[in-house]
Amino acid sequence: MHVNPGTTAGGTLTVTDGVIADLIGYAALETFGVVGMAAPSFQDGFVKMLPARALRRGVIVVKTDEGLAIDLYVVIEYGVNLTTVSKNLVDRVRFVMENYANQRIADVSVHVQSINVPKEK
Predict the structure, then answer these.
(1) Strand 67-77 vs strand 34-37: parallel, antiparallel, or unpaired?
(2) Is the pTM for the entire model greater than 0.90?
């Protein structure tokens, strides 16, 4: 993926798809109410929260003519408003990609894979 960094110096910056997915994953985790990323497919109703080193597995990015189409597979904290968290997540990802990576965003879809319920002590 080529990025025009908007500088006066010549040249191009190439950002790999993996780095784009990592940026998106970290932006997601910075959103209040999001406690982790999950794999996009699960069997038998079992969802595994991904470790920080595997955040990109919870992100699918497709390049379109209109920009990037992003699917996020997340685990949300119990007790938060799902609509508000999802909207904040979309806004955060859009901000990071447009301002830090200079990428146009066509669409961001949030897929809540699980709710993290705190264990009683």
Answers:
(1) antiparallel
(2) no
